[in-house]
Amino acid sequence: MLQLQGTYTALITPMKNDMSVDYDGFRQLIEFQLNAGVDGIVPLGTTGENPTLEHDEEDRLIAIAVESARGQVPVIVGTGSNSTKYAVFYTQRAKNLGADAALVVTPYYNKPNDSGIIAHFSAVAAVGLPVIVYNIASRTGRNINAALMKQLAAIPGIIGVKEASGDVNQMGDIIAQTDLTVLSGDDALTLPLIALGGAGVVSVLSNVVPHKIAELTRAGLSGDFVRARHLHYELLPLVRAAFIETNPVPIKAMMTAAGLPAGSVRLPLGPLTPEHESMIRDIVHKLT
Predict the structure, then answer these.
(1) How does pLDDT run across 266-279, given as a tens digit for each residue?
(2) Which one of the listed residues 8, 90, 162, 212 is annotated catalytic?
């Protein structure tokens, strides 16, 4: 069974000026991540703008990620949908293309009841690719609490959770009550989660400073909380800037300011306000 620990970068999808996918830029970003020492990459998540990607674009991005990772680190592909049928299809596709695991978000908008959530994740896990549950009520409208997560943990093939509830008490309960690998889905809570026994982070900020996030995570996991705390506070201005508007709008602006392939975001996401863009440029130039 796949063992997860450390820093997993929720990759952006770089775009060209005509808003087509910049596949060469995507390859460059993966090399940048590997050279920085991250523990895995996560394409096709929310940060990767998966709602606006075409199926053929997704196919190619997964194939590039698997090829570029070259077995050095796991490739965890976002395969969630609010349709169980499509979530199963996307997960099977990721498996066929060589992914190591699937990141599956709680079905959004439908707001399924507990029995529906259990049936949904059971169907996805039956594909045979290790599944990480992505719990983010702020985007889905449905929180998976510790009691329900405990039931999901009993489903064969579900190995972990990306916890983005923002509730540290819930995170602690999931760690205490299940054997799931618990990864933070919020860069600001990486250190607190590790202190509670969590295994690391699926990070947005590591798109721009992967070496720093990897160092923070390693320090925390090794028990060096003095160093981890120093890095936490050093990075806090970047963390706040990365979420000043809807993700991935700010992180793409940060990457552009840092000279990395990023481009703009596809509609319905829009560009940063001029004030926020200026602020982000100043922060990035000071801290990268």
Answers:
(1) 999 999 999 999 99
(2) 162
